[in-house]
Amino acid sequence: MESIEQINYLKVPVESVYKALTSEEGLGQVWTNKLKVKPEVGFINEFDFDEGYITKFKTLELKENSKIVWECLASDEEWIGTKVSFELTRKDNTTAVLLKHYDWRERTDFYRWCNYNWAMFLYSLKIYCENKKGLPYQERDF
């Protein structure tokens, strides 16, 4: 099984990062502005990237200001059954976000492309949390 791991450091309190990763407002500014999200274990979050299908992640775990785990139920075929986690740790005035996208069946070109896109996700999260303006999918030109 393959795994993507990315880390970024945000100069904001951990509470701000957790809220951004668990709310429609936050994920709408960071990832895609077409979504349905609730911060509830068992809820199936929906994300639309204008690709003809809805990406669905079931929330498996929520540890306030510490950890979020999703399982992909619907999306591109390579994503189905994979999991995404966000582990948050605070040191002084900085929050580290460790993103893991794991349980990939194999390392493919799509896997590699997603690796790049998760880095862009973390960049968008950083600028949203630090500057209140992210870079959702619909506003990207790269």
Automatic annotation (TrEMBL):
Entries under SUPFAM superfamilies matching the protein: Bet v1-like
Q: Which residues form the Activator of Hsp90 ATPase homologue 1/2-like C-terminal domain?
A: 11-129
Q: Kindly give the InterPro entries that the UniProt entry links to this protein.
A: ASHA1/2-like_C, START-like_dom_sf
Pfam families xref list: AHSA1
Gene3D superfamilies cross-referenced by the UniProt entry: 3.30.530.20
Q: State the CDD domains in the record.
A: SRPBCC_CalC_Aha1-like (cd07814)
Q: Which domain of life is it from?
A: Bacteria
Its family remark reads: Belongs to the AHA1 family.
> What is the protein name for this chain?
Uncharacterized conserved protein YndB, AHSA1/START domain
Q: Which organism is it from?
A: Belliella pelovolcani
